[in-house]
Amino acid sequence: MIISFEKIENVNDADFLSLYDLYVMSFPAKERRNRDDLCRLIVDSKMMNFDKIYVYEEVDGEKSATCGAEKTLSGLMVYWNFVDFCYFEHLAIFPEYRNCGIGGKVLSNINSKFDIPVVFEVEPPDTEIAVRRIEYYKRNGFKVLDTNYIQSPYSGKPEDAIALWIMGNNISEDELKKMDFISAIRKYVYHVENLNL
């Protein structure tokens, strides 16, 4: 299986509607942007990337499309490029392609694509699914970096803030202490300078 990514540059992209439906289906309203904000960022932001995830099957060492198509659209990822780290905001695979190894391949590609640390938010281990998700990320080369993180609310309402954990890769404890990635995420991703909860 070969994974490839293609950035959506335009909200008129033929795949945007199905990917937006996946985005809405995969993330509760408190954990995602509204459509207008997302569309504005896709068009205007130099830092944010909204990528399609494609899958090709490998047949005798060559790319071969699955299901007879040239390539199979299997999910989305939203990430932000900063100077010294990359922040993954959302990653979702269409339900019909889950449990097929695509997520692990995507994480492997992320680990090899970026030579800077990659960080993302994850729910704390309060539920069985959250525990399984954290263990899955650990098996795929990520570790818990911060257990006292508060996600700034997309709505701007303090009551919508969510207690989450930060996981990442390729980062030492010393680097973590020097980096102020949480302030950068709050400023550029959530547009919040100070989080007063």
Summary keywords:
197 residues; alpha+beta; 6 helices; 30% helix; globular
- SSE topology string: EHHEEEEHEHEEHH
What CATH first level would be assigned? Answer: Alpha Beta
Helical segment tally?
A: 6
The major pleated sheet works out as: 8 strands, mixed
CATH superfamily: Gcn5-related N-acetyltransferase (GNAT)
Instruction: Find the structural class using helix and strand composition.
Output: alpha+beta
Q: How many domains make up the 3D coordinates? A: 1
Taking pLDDT < 50 over at least 5 consecutive residues as the criterion, the unreliable ranges are none
**Average predicted confidence as pLDDT:** 88
Radius of gyration, CA atoms, in whole angstroms: 17 Å
What is the number of beta strands?
8
CATH topology: Aminopeptidase
Strand fraction: 25-35%
**How far apart, in Å, are the first and last alpha carbons?**
45 Å
Helix content: 25-40%
Q: Per the principal axes of the C-alpha atoms, what is the gross shape?
A: globular
Q: What is the CATH architecture assignment? A: 3-Layer(aba) Sandwich
